[in-house]
Design a protein that fits this description.
This protein has two helices and four strands, in the order βαβαββ. The protein is of the alpha+beta class.
Length: about 90
């Protein structure tokens, strides 16, 4: 049986508009150790795009995303913070 990660911190970003939910998450991640788990609640639909993108590009692990009663619930594990490089553009020549 797998254990559910213990949440270190919860961020209530309900009723905040883009980019505030991601900025709150970014600030919280700065203050915790690698491997820490943070839960984020948001009601802005753009968070469904912004949070996964932020995690992918900043080296954090998005553990889960669920939606209940109009609230998005994200669980994020802090990674090393190493940014992932975007793919190089293809030379058309």
């Amino acid at each position: 049986m797998t254990q559910k990660p213990q949440t270190l911190m919860e961020i209530d970003a309900r009723d905040l508009r883009c980019p505030l939910p991601v900025l709150r998450l970014q600030k919280a991640l700065r203050g915790v150790d690698i491997g820490a788990v943070i839960a984020l609640q948001a009601t802005d639909g753009m968070a469904q795009i912004d949070v996964p993108h932020f995690c992918a590009t900043q080296g954090h692990h998005l553990i889960s995303v669920t939606q209940r009663d109009g609230v998005l619930h994200f669980v994020i594990e802090k990674g090393s913070g190493a940014m992932k490089k975007p793919s190089a553009p293809v030379d058309p020549n």
